[in-house]
Design goal:
The complex is a heterodimer of chains A (565) and B (336). With 565 residues, chain A is an alpha+beta fold. Chain A is built from 16 helices and 22 strands. In chain A, strands 12, 13, 14, 15, 16, 17 and 18 form a 7-stranded mixed beta sheet that branches. In chain A, strand 15, helix 12 and strand 16 form a beta-alpha-beta unit. Chain B has 2 domains: 76 residues, no CATH class; 237 residues, MetI-like (MetI-like fold, Orthogonal Bundle). Helices cover 74% and strands 0% of the residues of chain B. The longest helix of chain B has 35 residues. Chain B starts with a helix and ends in a 5-residue tail after the last helix. Classes of the chains: A alpha+beta (565), B mainly alpha (336). Chains A and B meet through helix 1, helix 7 and helix 13 of A and helix 2, helix 3, helix 7, helix 8 and helix 10 of B.
């Protein structure tokens, strides 16, 4: 057989050289340091950090849909509120403490306000040292403009509603007025004049959407991140933002530590688009420091059973309730006895097991959530089914059985479809045949929020915007506005309006008592929906992360307390 | 051939126009009736109906559908893919970088799958029923059977994560903390070419395995067929070496068919790498499309569909024309 022609030795030598070069490049890559999108880097800092000293880099992961907006007066998702807590100092802010201590308010850009005796006037005095990241002092006019911006119809994503009690706000929110006379500003003070007392007003002035922006900022949404880059007011500012790719946040050198000792990491790099399961692997492999998504049940079980990882696991309460909403305007759930029967029939323990079990939640049959003002634990309904009671109520309802209905939920997050199947099985025992309809959260959320969809029932998680009962009870089920998007139950029993209004106007201990009673009255008398459980946050971080605190109020990691070990 | 090529290009343009209409209908009209509302998504969870209506007006979603389509088509003809509802910036600034990432992944995978399939398939065709041929075909069946959504996380686990725990394929033979490959992530070529390549190794291997399996069988079959033809027997009889027969004779006849398949597969892969991009966190076109769906960002979703369709149409058109060039039999078909 003839051999090939040509110059075999030169060809083999050339191929060999190319192969060697490729291997050398691979080895160089393997041993190279961190990159912009993978391995964490930076110096280590042993022990407790010193005030005003920020060092090291922590790298985290976010899921692809974690960021709703980068406009500081529009953000609403929990992940962006975590960023807001780092890049903004609101008039008052939450303490950097874990658990319930983290729901206490403390001075922020302003000192705690002076409140008039009738509860209608709140006067905030700005503190020396309150500055934007460009070095300019934050003035009262900046604060007033910030509130006008967040309430402007072109900007508002729903938190403007919380300031309806400010004089002139209804017309301004509706776009019928260009002024807001209820907010009066001087250089270093800002005063809010209300039409009625508001026991949660202090919390509302700590909302992340009240992040200060300079007077005159455009009244159009700013999604590029320039506001957080140039006018941050917190311990951090935005260095760069590539939508759906990466966020880089760096220590704000113009933040005055006299406003609160915060910020010990020089740089945070957030890689967007990393799945939670992959992120957990990367943290374990030392290629990532933290992540911001709910972990899958399988990962939670794996990590919690690994004793060697115990120091890297953190659990925290969340201001959250997961509930089965029942449309009070659509048959059969327009019948009170049927709604009560559902509360007796569902197996809350089994449903919660689909979410992850006791590690990540605690079953509940009441409206209010732990840690929020107005919470006092009680059980309106059993955690496991009482079919005798449920069937008795179905009989008393007079509704003809069997009934067919549908349950809507998101199908792009772990656990929801499984929870739907458990509820389907539970309700079949009392003659209610359920079809579970799953759609991605973006579709499901807008569908069920639309009153015209007449959605009979669905599973929905709800995180409180601030740790007060008003953020759940009034925001989520005000009987005066049954068609409001957050009122998924379409609860519109007018007889309850006085109780809702009285509780919202009350202050202090009396407020807590009124909401506790309202919680019980609602669940025992009309059962507008079926609470299932209160989720807990289960987190897994790398060995480099110190100072871990989960901000209950923001429902996000507190980046101001972390340091690099 | 010129007339044929011209007809082919014209047909491609008509196909693209039809796709734009279908994409628009799918997301702007049909989605409306499912209740998915980008205005609601952008206005926020607690927005009032009035606020939602205002956002819809600002986005132009309150216009009649035919008017929205004409505006959309007019923009497209000027190369304007629209404006993202969510990111508030031109869609082209979102889609083109994503395309570059996906192209890196797909072209890298194509090089790998060809590098595997050509020698393995050619050997199998040359030595049918030999040990090498049987092994190649067995691996090919395995490669075709394993779904990519299983393969991707497994490869990331075995070659990205386990080495950091001191293991290689479960065997404790590496030092703990070994960084063999990154579990995920992407680095732009312009930022660091070495890291760009390093981060693409596992994703490219993952994507290549399934395609390599198909190509092994395809090339094996074609090679075996061509080796049975008279002209190859003649070439051997005239003293040509096996290598010369394979490269100069069989290769010339196999290449057009492989090229056609490659063009179609690259187009398919460009639009279907979603699982690999999701697992390895590569911000490509599949990931961008998914993110846009999660956020009901209709302009981006529509742009992704259109770009994918254009790629498929262009790839097939280019391949058809290239086939004409490679295969003289097609080149000399008399014009009707």
């Amino acid at each position: 057989m003839a051999h090939s022609t040509g110059h075999p030795r030169r060809v083999r030598a050339a191929v060999g050289a190319v192969a060697l070069a490729a291997v050398a490049a691979l080895l160089a890559a393997c041993s190279s340091g961190s990159t912009a999108s993978s391995a964490p880097s930076g110096s280590t800092t042993a022990g407790a950090p010193k005030a005003g000293v920020a060092s090291g880099t922590l790298t985290g992961a976010m899921s692809s849909g974690a960021i709703d907006t980068m406009d500081p007066n529009r953000w609403y998702f929990a992940v962006t509120w975590g960023l807001a807590n780092a890049m903004c100092t609101t008039l008052v802010r939450y303490a950097d403490r874990p658990d319930a201590a983290g729901t206490q308010l403390t001075a922020g850009t302003a000192s705690m306000p002076v409140i008039s005796s009738n509860g209608l006037t709140y006067t905030y005095t700005l503190r020396p040292g309150a500055k934007f990241s460009d070095g300019k002092a934050i003035t009262g006019q900046d604060i007033k403009y910030t509130f006008m911006r967040l309430m402007n119809p072109a900007i508002d994503t729903g938190t403007g509603y919380y300031f309806t009690n400010v004089i002139g706000a209804p017309a301004y929110l509706a776009g019928k007025s260009k002024t807001l006379p209820g907010i009066v500003a001087t250089t270093n003070t800002v005063t809010f004049h209300l039409t009625a007392p508001d026991g949660a007003f202090l919390y509302k002035t700590a909302l992340p959407t009240t992040c200060p922006v300079p007077n005159g900022t455009t009244m159009k949404p700013q999604e590029s991140g320039t506001l957080e880059t140039n006018y941050a007011s917190g311990p951090y500012r935005l260095q760069s933002y590539e939508p759906s790719r990466q966020i880089v946040m760096v220590f704000n050198k113009n933040y005055d530590q006299a406003l609160g000792v915060r910020g010990h990491v020089a740089k945070y790099v957030f890689n967007i688009g990393v799945q939670a399961s992959q992120a957990a692997l990367e943290i374990q492999a030392g290629q990532l420091d933290f992540q911001t998504s709910n972990l899958a049940t399988a990962d939670i079980i794996r990590l919690s059973h690994n004793a060697s990882l115990a120091s890297q696991v953190h659990q925290s309460p969340r201001p959250e309730t997961t509930y089965l909403f029942l449309n009070n305007e659509v048959a059969p759930f327009n019948n009170i006895d049927v709604r009560k029967a559902v509360n007796y029939a569902i197996n809350r323990t089994a449903i919660e097991e689909q979410w992850g079990g006791p590690l990540v939640g605690s079953v509940s049959s009441q409206i209010m959530v732990p840690g929020a003002l107005g919470y006092a634990r009680y059980s309106a309904y059993p955690v496991t089914p009482d079919l005798t009671m449920a069937k008795k109520l179905m009989q008393e309802s007079g509704v003809k059985l069997p009934i067919s209905t549908s349950l809507r939920t998101q199908n792009d997050a772990p656990g929801f479809m499984n929870m739907g199947q458990v509820i389907k099985a539970n309700l079949a025992t009392i003659g209610i045949n359920v079809t579970v309809v799953g759609t991605p959260n973006s579709v499901n959320s807008s569908y069920i929020s639309n009153p015209a969809s007449h959605t009979p029932m669905g599973i929905e998680p709800w995180s409180l915007d601030f740790p007060d009962a008003e953020a759940l009870i009034n925001t989520g089920m005000d009987p005066a506005t049954p068609n409001a998007p957050p009122n998924l139950t379409r609860f519109g029993d007018k007889a309850f309006i006085p109780q809702f209004d009285a509780a919202a106007a009350a202050l202090g201990t009396h407020r807590a008592q009124l909401y506790q009673q309202l919680d019980k009255n609602l669940m025992y008398q009309v059962a507008p929906y079926a609470p299932i459980f209160n989720a807990r946050w289960f987190d897994f971080v790398s060995t480099r992360v110190g100072g871990y605190v989960y901000s209950v109020a923001m429902d996000a990691i507190n980046y101001n307390t972390l340091y690099v070990k | 051939m010129t007339r044929l090529a011209g007809t082919r290009v014209l047909g491609a343009l008509v196909q693209i126009l039809v796709v734009t209409l279908l994409a628009f209908l799918l997301f702007y009209v049909i989605a409306r009736f499912t209740g998915a509302s980008p205005a609601q998504r952008i206005a926020g969870k607690t927005a009032t109906p009035e606020q939602i209506a205002l956002v819809a007006k600002n986005l132009g979603l309150d216009q009649p559908y035919w008017k929205q389509y004409l505006i959309f088509l007019g923009n497209l003809l000027h190369g304007n893919l629209g404006f993202s509802y969510v990111q508030q910036r031109p869609v082209s600034q979102i889609v083109w970088p994503a395309m570059r990432a996906t192209a890196s992944l797909v072209l890298g995978a194509a090089l790998i799958w060809l590098a595997i399939a050509i020698p393995v398939g050619a050997y199998g065709g040359l030595r049918p029923r030999s040990f090498g041929d049987v092994a190649g075909r067995t691996l090919a069946i395995l490669g075709m059977s394993i779904p990519v959504f299983w393969l991707a996380p497994v490869i990331a686990y075995l070659l990205g994560y386990q080495p950091t725990q001191g293991k290689l394929f479960g065997l404790p033979i590496l030092p703990v903390g070994t960084k063999l490959f990154p579990i995920g992530g992407y680095v732009d070529f312009g930022t660091d070419p070495v890291q760009w390549a390093y981060h693409l190794i596992l994703p490219c291997i993952t994507l290549a395995i399934g395609f390599a399996a198909v190509y092994i069988r395809f090339i094996r079959t074609l090679t075996a067929e061509q080796l049975g033809e008279d002209y190859t027997r003649t070439a051997k009889a005239k003293g040509a070496s096996t290598q010369r027969v394979l490269v100069r004779h069989v290769g010339r006849n196999v290449t057009p068919s492989v090229t056609v398949l490659l063009g179609a597969d690259i187009a398919t892969a460009l639009t279907g790498v979603f699982f690999v991009e999701t697992v390895f966190a590569i911000p490509g076109i599949g990931y961008t499309g998914l993110s846009a769906i999660e956020n009901l960002d209709y302009p981006v979703i529509t742009a992704v569909i259109i770009v994918a369709a254009v790629i498929a149409v262009v790839a097939n058109t280019v391949v058809d024309i290239a086939h004409m060039g490679l295969d003289p039999r097609i080149r000399h078909v008399p014009d009707a």
